[in-house]
Records
---
Amino acid sequence: MTLNISRLLTEYADAPLGLDNRRPRLSWRLEAEEREQLQTAYRLLVATCPNKLERDEGDMWDSGRIESDQSIHVQYAGSPLESGAHYYWKVRVWDKRDVPSEWSRMSSWSMGPLNQADWQAKWIGMDVPHSDDYRSVAYLRKALVIRKPVKRAIVHATALGIYRLFIGGRRVSDHEFAPGWTDYKKRIQYQTYEVTSHFGSGAQKAKVRKFTSLALLVSYMGYLEGISERDMIPESRTGNYGDWLSIHADTSKELISNAFYAHSTGLMARIASVLGREEDASKFREQAQRIKEAFAVKFADPGGRLKGGTQTAYALTLSMGLLPEPAARLAACRLVEEVKASDNHVTAGFLGIPHLLPALSDYGYIDTAYDLLMQESFPSWFHQIKSGATTMWERWDGWSKERGFHPVERMNSFNHYAFGAVGEWLYRYMAGIDTDLLQPGFKHIRIAPRPGGGLTRVYAEYESMYGTIVSAWEIQDGRFRLQVRIPINTTAAVQLPGAETKVEIGSGTYAFEIRL
């Protein structure tokens, strides 16, 4: 059976409007009935109108046959794209036997304003003094006189705050909280809407202003290096919120700042390497190593004990690889002691939670991680669930049976992601779905479930760019059974609990079983 093509995406979206990327990335999903199918080549066509594409004419870009298994993030490489223009594309592929597929369905995208001169609209609003008091929202109207028949109507909209757009009394979209949160002083997102159907006899195109960001990551790293002293950011320059909403466990802001300084510098080395900037990569690697060495001297003793050690302090230090061995192993033991001292309750705040369970698991303390996960009394995830939560709270004690709502009413969200970062651990460790750093984006998948916590059944699926990844396991009669589904054009390494070796598989559905 040959490959079938589905779900064409441009910049992660289906037929998006208003792109400002001059080289948009094209992706497609593949389907097949047989196992271990792969794409070996592709051909892309991009045209200025549907009729040309139907005739297999790519007047903007005909890639020709490209020998490659790449099916996501293929960068457009045709003629220059123009502001406001619409483009149409399709693709065909060849499978592992060099059998060609049919052409895919047609998809499209449009470009937004690409040049500063394209932005002509001016800000509208009311001149009112700033106040923290709640007030009714402003209702701003503009009458349009349409004198000619409408071929197409596009509107670009944004606001310095939340907006809803109506035309002729009808709401343009169901988007809430548009335009999306940014630092308004530096960057403002905008939305592009197709609104032709909102006009009977015609329309005018509305545009809004957009700011671009001046804050570059490399410049920021230079700033951090500039304020550091002997490869450490001094306490006097650590003006941050710390481990926000931790429970009776204040972590040193100086430790937090320098942990992230080391981690960010290491990430910069990896980014530079991927981009082929080896000189920069080498510089950042050497700098990251110096920061780690300074961190270990300042905050840890040879026995792995951290100054003012909290769950967050140990979790950040371990997950970011800031200590050499054997100090790191000893620090992991200290983290377990810290968890036991809190009677298997979390005390970490916003910064520590994403790293806490992974740090325990990576150093062999999966049972302790499950003890924290399955805890039912305050503070814990299950305390929120047993208290009626259907979304993650901002505070561990946002509501309690004894006190009711937390007294800080204006900072007590009941739909707040931060503590929900545990969801990553559920996927990566409990279900065992993970990426391979050498083949990112789930091109090569790691499946390594870690059972525990008294659980006997787990099902997880993840919608990757290549397709649905499934890891489902159950324990029955002392046997561990695992079912996995791997998308077309990817491969996976499966490692069962307690096994030292991995099994390499291709796409398809597989079942494994071992005795625990």
---
Amino acid sequence: MTRTYSATEAILLTEGYRPDTLTSLLNRLSPKPKVFSYDVKADRATLVTDMAQFKAFNPAVQTMHVVGHGLEEETLAELGNLQVIPHLSPLPTGVLSASWPKKITLGEEVQVQGKFTSKDQATQLYLHAAGAKRDSVEIKKGAEQTFSLKFKPKTAGQFVYHLQWRDTEDSVHKEQLPVLVEAPRLLNVLLLSSSPSFEVKFLKNALAQKGHGVAVRSQVSKGIYQTETVNLPTVQVSRLTPTLLQKFDVVLLDAEALQSLSGQEKQTLQQAVSQQGLGILTTFTGSRPKSIPFFAEAVFARISEKEAINGPVKWIGQTTSAAVLPLTSFALQPKEGQPSLAWGNTPKQALVTTYRKGLGQVGVSLVQETFPLALEGKEKLYQGFWAKVLTALASPAEEPAVSIEPIFATVHQAVALTGSGGSQVPTPKIASYKDKTPAAALVGGSSLLSSHQTFTTWPQAQGWHSFGSIGGPSASLYIFPATAWQTRQLHQKQQAIRKASGAERLHNTVSDIFQEEAFPLWPFGLGLLLALGFLWLEEKV
């Protein structure tokens, strides 16, 4: 027969541990466990550099008390099925998490969202961009608070904005926010109009001033058209052909112009949308809009008894007051899969919707005229409306994608770069834009898919870097300093250990290690013999 004793516990000190927490834990636990430390020096603690090795050398340890900020998720995995009990230290003031668009098009906003913790005092958090504080929010003392800050860049290029705050000693702290601001994509737009109009004239001029290619075909009388091209080689637009439509990204036309097209031209348009990814927008200017197969598969609902009204026009991303424009007495009722690009008083009263047809986008609009905005000097509203519409209609440009892991890549740390968008290409190069300093050689080129290749490098400098090769994927990426996002890293460790401590463990009969010791049976035999002897004597008496 054997007696079973439970296994021992251990204490692991990690970065940010507090001596008073350790003392309290040692006083509470009996018998006192042995103390270890990981990535931190501590008196009377055995230093551990490899958790898998620690587990192999200490097989009796079943419960690990982790003191401090904890361990990274990969390191925790090496502990296997050990029970982890966290004793976490308060996080220092700083950013717990943050997200923002790493690449935008000029005219779009940079919106930074995340969580911030302020340990010792209320803190003013700023978004610092283009040499000035652009937005701010107050973080309450002791709170874990969400924030949202925004800024709209005015020029294209590579920029590093900052989240900025001051501590109790008035020292400034910053976290870097690299953003690539690209110039707007230039599109080729074909305007088909049932008659010459101010709307077409203003839109043609506005698009041309931005560098877009524009071709105009306005019907003067039956079979006779007035044509014009700007920022494009001379093209014949008197008849719509597959060859002609291959030269354009978007076609804008009114319902009357659509109806005047021949059956062959309509079929050519449909094929260009479905097979080539052409975008098309049909605008209704009359008082009785109606659904048109393929080109205007929409539900029109009357919202006013008046035939013509002036009403507000709003759209996603609009930051100024609503535009007021001439509208019909109808609104669109979007079906499933038909997002609203613009609307009136409420998003349910849609004025512009889109839906997919094959590879392309088809749009329907009830906004009859937008040129009054330009006449009134409201150029931002005018440009903003058409930028939203054209971006939604045009097929995205085909760009080889490059992903980076980890997202917050730092100097002297391994960085994995995966390029897609082509077959096997020569090994790319990575170099700093600042001084053209090459990073350590790219290693790898491994791929599970023929169109994806992954390379590993160890950047030697912080800042913007170029990555690419001739004929292969290319990108700009940012390497952070080793000291960046410290509070975020500590927060991730604490989240990982909280998750590990709440995970289900294997049953003791599988995971526990037992210490066994022989137990003598003769005391039971002696006791039984004495009891029988007592019963025999009692009968004799």
---
Amino acid sequence: MKRMYLAVGVLSVLIGLLALALRLLLSGVASGLETQEPARPDASSKMSITMMPISWEGGLRWREDHPIIKYLNDKFNIDLQLQWTDGESYKEKLSVMAAAGQLPDMFQVEPEMFVNWQHKGVFLDLAADMQTYPHLKSAFSSDSWELLNPSGKLYGIPVSNTAYRDSYQIRADWLDKVGIPIPAVDDFTLDDFYRIVQAFALEDPDDDGLNNTFGLSITNLLSGSAPSNSGQLRAAFGLANEWKLIDGQLVSQYIQTEEMKQFLSYLRKLYAEGLLDRNFADKGFGTIYEEFQSGKTGIITYRPDTFLSDELLLRASHPKARLVQLPPPIGPKGDRGNPTNPQGVSKSVINGHIAPAKQARIMEILDWWTSPEGAFVMSNGFEGVHYVRGEDGAAVKTALADSDVPWLLSSWLLSGGDAEPAKVYTEPEVVDFYKRYYKKNAAFAYTNDAGGLEVLSLAYRWYYRKLEEDYRKIQIQVIRGEKPLNAIDYAEKAWREGGGDRILREVNEIYRQNVSASSWNTAK
């Protein structure tokens, strides 16, 4: 009996020791999750990884059996699940997922969300272990890495694109039809632009005998760098691209009342004369771009690869269709510009609450992704699948290159430096065209002089979007002749009193603190 009691006692001690060890093990795991110390992954254990890329351009996304997905699964021993989400609903879906505690392992956040969530443990801090991933670290400048992060922290990977990507493109065949020469760079004014818009609306530029073309179609966005088809006109009147440095102070376009009146007066005239699309207030960029592709409008703001593809598309129904790059018009005081986005303000982030081993596996993938080998694969796909080599060694793309779109994930989830559209199979003359296109745009950079720092202002994050929406409603009413031009005086007053003055103070203070400690600039 004593032996039995002894055995039971020994068994109890062993169970207690095992329980203590288990508690210590679980405590260590919890501590690892809390401190987020990534470990080099054990590639012997397969794991499921979810990434949530934005999907633009009509829901473009990869097929489930995409060759790159299979390659990544085999190379890193993972089961990669891509949760493609339309850009228009991306932010809302992220908020719902966050509230439910179901965020993906890797996703993208816009600047306001990045700043609001970075102190809540939502994102993995990459700073401590960054030296272990040299390719990823060197893919972006130190300024881009640090932008919008607290000192000593790196909660997100900068999302960059081509700084000087977009400019006006115009139907040169329409110009020929209405008898207007292609505008010269040095003396193309707002009056010249008006004459083109007038002719495109009233003089049957597509030569079909019908009154079915718009002079100018714009979106309902009347601020910011996103393609809107009106950004170049704002630049011509000297308005800020969100923020403009004047005499050492950052100024918002919403207090540039005289310049705003001139801009709106110009659009108001176009609208009153039937030259501006009557339904502009209800349209986003996708709609006006489709109108351009279908031949309803002859002016669009977009990038060089769409210039080439759209020219071919238009020629299918209009064999004489021809596009040319149009310089931004010159305003009354000599101002002009093509809207330019700050670089690195949006971030791709890794979930801070997933297991450290999974975080480390994702970092391994990203380090390969930004290596020469990885960047090549993620841009071009695979030889024999997405391109083949001719006898001269030159690469020629296959049909799968167009349908598989190998570069899609790099462009919409992890893009480093200039998101150059040229691929291994791109003809040299096309590469040269891209370079010329960007060089022309760079000569007329229309930058946000705050460089993205404005989102560090608490007042900005609280008030700005609502103030912007309220102000835009009055802008639209003024353009449509529903309110007089002096309504903008009251709009400025409401903007200031609704939180705008506080935003101005905070943004300028943040700018002064950061510009003295950093060498970043908005064109990186």
